[in-house]
Amino acid sequence: MASPRVSNLERAKWRAQCRQRLSEHIQSKIGISIEPSQVRLITCVDDPYNWTFLPEKWHLFGKHLSKHSIGAYMKLCRDVGVLFEAVAAGTSTQCTAQVKQDDALPSQPDVSFLAKIQQLEAENSRLTSELNQWREQAVRESELKGHTEEEVNQLQSTLQVAQTDIQQMRHEINNWALTADFFRKSTIKSCRGLNEAFLLLEELKLELPALWNGQRLDWKSPEVVSGVV
User: Fold this and answer.
1) Alpha carbon 105 to chain centroid, angstroms
2) Using CB atoms within 10 A of its CB, is residue 41 exposed (0-12), middle (13-18) or buried (19+)?
3) What is the structure's pLDDT at 1?
4) Is residue 96 over pLDDT 60?
């Protein structure tokens, strides 16, 4: 745990940084130069500036700057120009510094600041809507990608089945080709045998008249028949 002295030094550093940041903001926003040491959160009627802020920042402007914690200084440095801003002082003659802290009512946001906040809210709503649209589109694309991957897997499965069928058909075609070649060779061999038998019959046909005319053919004799053949 930090010692009280170190903690006080850190708090003083952040207080000085916060005063400098608020002073620069007043200068850039309304063109009034205020020394950092003279910057106030609870302004008086004599101050040439005032603060306008959102309701959730009221607690920061209900206490003097020197009384805040380090966390409050960080919030002031971070939110100046975003959630609160400096405006030119009004015509009120009441000094807010003289009002008791429990009864003090911080100033309400002016019209220009509210308009800026509304514009930011509208922009935030538009960005949120666009973000939701992109999310929905991403979901649709993801679902479409899932369907596409499923279809690709089905096509790959179908292709594998078709390739298997093709291989089986090629195997069967080879078998049929071998069978057809066997029958072709058998047919050629049979044709040759038939041609030889036909030629032999033609020769016999030519020799039969001579046998009838010059010799007596004994059809009952095996030797004669054997000799003719």
Assistant:
1) 51
2) buried
3) 52
4) no
| Token pair 């039969």: residue | 208
Question: Secondary structure of the chain in the HEC alphabet?
Answer: CCCHHHHHHHHHHHHHHHHHHHHHHHHHHHCCCCCHHHCCCCCCCCCCEEEEECHHHHHHHCCCHHHCCHHHHHHHHHHECCCEEEEECCCCCCCHHHCCHHHCCCCCCCHHHHHHHHHHHHHHHHHHHHHHHHHHHHHHHHHHHHHHHHHHHHHHHHHHHHHHHHHHHHHHHHHHHHHHHHHHHHHHHHHHHHHHHHHHHHHHHHHHHHHHHHCCCCCCCHHHHHHHC
- Alpha-carbon distance 155 to 174, whole Å? 28
Percent of the chain at pLDDT > 90 equals 28
C-alpha span between 181 and 177 (Å, rounded): 6
Residue entry with tokens 């946001």: 109
Does the global pTM surpass 0.85?
no
Tokens of 196: 């030889």
Q: How far apart are CA 150 and CA 157, in angstroms?
A: 11
Distance between CA 83 and CA 97 in Å, rounded? 22
